[in-house]
């Protein structure tokens, strides 16, 4: 159940609020339609209910505010607009990524794909989907957490009649099993056909809250639309003849409504009667047509993948029960009214709601994934971008390494990573920096975590998962680049060109540390500035801007005193560590004493501190 009490949006400058003191209920076991013309405030009301926009009032879901629900995605399914998924991601991969965000098993993705009739297109890319398929995928995403409430913003807008009929059947089946459905619509005919309760709003204010039958009887009566330059005179003539006929023979009442300009609508009459009246009085008529309120039933499109529906009825949410039985019980007049999950019948009195809050509330932060590491793995491996970047980086490093070996002797680190003097970073480090920037850059471009807010939550758990996955990818890329270059150089030039026998630990540590630092720098910068391009700029700024500045500082003798630190520590220690550990510590400190090491360390510390500060500043107080 949804209870909206006194919803009022924050007014813009010199404009009335989009939603003004709106109160209504969406009960379980029923479909509630929020009806209004474009700009009436339907979407703004939904965003206030979901706490996406600041405003006043209270919205309760089964008696609880949204911020009191531990896992909102498992209890409330939302579809506002289209699915903002990556065009190269498959439908199954997209839903598995969202299942990790909702904290449900990955197998749930295949279940909801079958529910919405897309199981045959599970491996199809989102960029190839039609509007109807995209809307079905959005419904599948809303059903992932097996919610008790669905909130949908004009789900049938611009759909074909068959897709619309399928959507209506799914929502009716979902409501028949006790779920609460709240949809918005701009079409009165659609609202009367789909909903059990129609809430009409205009300019953000409540106009009517009616049962669907009452609404259809008052708003969808057959009528005759007339356009005439003498509309006022024709309206007077028709009203006078209707009064005379009713007094004489008791004819049904005829209502004439002047809709402005040259248009009038006549209820309770026919085109023939109106035309004859206009002809008798010599009134010119430009247009005379009967407007039918309903176009009749339309055969739904059960599935979008072309497969045969074995269940024999319009599919609904599998996780809440057998939909075919629910549809049969819905058509049975002797069936018991559906009950909500808490056990209350939907026809009973609504529980009392607390008074509306009169102070504006800040919007809730976007929820992060319940399983962040699994979510990040699905995100990173679901598209080919990462694999393409890694392949290009390895190829560029190999070609550059071969050219450097032909040109002459170089240090092992530069030779085995393909890092010439004129290049600011080795190809593997640049590729890792791009992978790190894409980890947040793609998130902000296609915000699967928070499509309704258009932003991505800055959560430390999400940051930790991205750091872990990016670090693993960077280390694999660095070691693969060094191993591949060493093998090819040994094959082409022999063992004299690849001096790995001496200083192999420093070479591997240097390449891996540089690649890892670039990957994390790109990740933190992209997460902080919400842009892939700025993440790459931060990566390139380390060797081109920060290193020259630190180079002069670290060239002083005092800056090089860290090199002999392992020997001094060993001589002062009570317990002597193994001698092999000295080489590793010396190699690490030697890297840290270089300008590029200090530059990466300082940049990572600054970006991480700024990111954490942004996380705490963005939390509501």
Give a description of the structure.
This protein is α/β, with parallel strands linked by helices and 621 residues long. The chain folds into 3 domains: 2-217 and 300-331, Rossmann fold; 221-291, Alpha-Beta Plaits; 372-617, no CATH class. 48% of the residues lie in helices and 12% in strands. The chain has 21 helices and 14 strands. It has helices at residues 42-49, 72-75, 91-102, 108-115, 131-142, 161-176, 188-194, 212-219, 231-249, 271-280, 323-331, 372-381, 385-407, 412-417, 427-445, 460-493, 504-529, 532-554, 565-572, 579-592, 595-617, and strands at residues 2-9, 22-26, 31-35, 55-61, 64-65, 76-80, 149-153, 180-185, 197-202, 205-211, 223-227, 255-260, 263-267, 287-291. The strands form 3 sheets. It has a 6-stranded mixed sheet, with helices on both faces. The protein has a 4-stranded antiparallel sheet with strand order 2-1-4-5, with helices on one face. Strands 12-13-11-14 form a 4-stranded antiparallel sheet, covered by helices on one side. Helix 17 (504-529) crosses helix 20 (579-592). The longest helix is centred in the C-terminal third of the chain and has 34 residues, at 460-493.
């Amino acid at each position: 159940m949804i209870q909206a009490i006194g919803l009022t949006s924050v007014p813009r400058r010199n404009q009335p609020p989009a939603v003004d003191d709106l109160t209504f209920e969406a009960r379980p076991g029923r479909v509630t339609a929020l009806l209004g013309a474009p700009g009436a405030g339907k979407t703004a009301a939904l965003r206030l209910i979901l706490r996406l926009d600041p405003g006043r009032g209270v919205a309760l879901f089964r008696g609880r505010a949204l911020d009191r629900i531990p896992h909102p995605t498992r209890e409330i399914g939302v579809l506002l607009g289209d699915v903002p998924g990556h065009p190269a991601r498959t439908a199954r991969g997209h839903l598995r990524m969202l299942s990790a965000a909702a904290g449900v098993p990955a197998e749930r993705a295949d279940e909801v794909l079958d529910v919405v009739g897309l199981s045959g297109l599970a491996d199809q890319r989102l960029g190839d989907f039609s509007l109807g398929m995209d809307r079905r995928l959005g419904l599948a995403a809303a059903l992932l957490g097996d919610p008790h409430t669905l909130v949908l913003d004009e789900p049938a807008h611009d759909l074909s009649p068959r897709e619309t009929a399928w959507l209506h059947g799914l929502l009716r089946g979902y409501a028949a099993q006790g779920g609460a459905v709240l949809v918005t619509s701009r079409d009165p005919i659609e609202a009367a056909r789909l909903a059990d309760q129609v809430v009409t709003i205009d300019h953000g204010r409540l106009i009517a809250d009616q049962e669907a039958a009452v609404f259809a009887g008052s708003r969808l009566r057959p009528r005759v639309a007339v356009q005439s330059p003498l509309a006022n005179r024709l309206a007077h003539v028709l009203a006078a003849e209707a009064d005379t006929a009713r007094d004489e023979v008791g004819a049904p009442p005829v209502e004439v409504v002047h809709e402005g300009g040259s248009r009038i609508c006549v209820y309770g009459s026919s085109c023939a009667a109106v035309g004859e009246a206009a002809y008798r009085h010599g009134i010119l008529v430009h247009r005379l047509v009967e407007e039918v309120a309903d176009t009749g039933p339309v055969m739904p499109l059960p599935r979008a993948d072309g497969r045969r529906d074995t269940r024999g009825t319009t599919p609904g949410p599998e996780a809440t029960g057998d939909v075919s039985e629910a549809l049969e019980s819905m058509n049975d007049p002797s069936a018991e009214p559906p009950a909500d999950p808490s056990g209350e019948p939907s026809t009973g009195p609504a529980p009392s709601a607390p008074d509306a809050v009169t102070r504006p509330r800040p919007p809730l932060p976007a929820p992060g994934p319940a399983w962040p590491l699994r979510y990040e793995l699905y995100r990173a491996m679901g598209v080919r971008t990462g694999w393409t970047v890694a392949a290009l980086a390895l190829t560029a490093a190999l070609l550059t390494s071969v050219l450097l070996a032909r040109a002459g002797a170089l240090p092992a680190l530069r030779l085995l990573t393909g890092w010439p003097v004129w290049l600011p970073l080795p190809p593997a480090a640049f590729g890792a920096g791009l992978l790190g920037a894409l980890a947040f850059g793609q998130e902000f471009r296609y915000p699967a975590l928070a499509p309704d807010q258009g932003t991505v939550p800055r959560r430390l758990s999400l940051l930790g998962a991205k750091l872990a996955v990016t670090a693993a990818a960077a280390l694999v890329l660095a070691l693969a680049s060094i191993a591949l270059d060493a093998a090819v150089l040994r094959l082409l030039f022999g063992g004299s060109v690849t001096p790995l026998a001496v200083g192999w630990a420093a070479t591997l540590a240097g390449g891996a540390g540089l690649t890892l630092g670039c990957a994390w720098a790109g990740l933190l910068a992209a997460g902080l500035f919400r842009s892939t391009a700025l993440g790459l700029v931060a990566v390139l700024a380390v060797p081109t801007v920060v290193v020259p500045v630190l180079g002069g500082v670290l060239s002083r003798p005092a800056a090089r005193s860290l090199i002999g630190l392992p020997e001094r520590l060993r001589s002062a220690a009570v317990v002597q560590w193994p001698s092999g550990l000295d080489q590793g510590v010396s190699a690490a400190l030697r890297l840290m004493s270089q300008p590029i090491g200090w530059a990466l360390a300082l940049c990572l510390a600054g970006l991480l501190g700024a990111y954490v500060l942004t996380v705490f500043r963005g939390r509501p107080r």
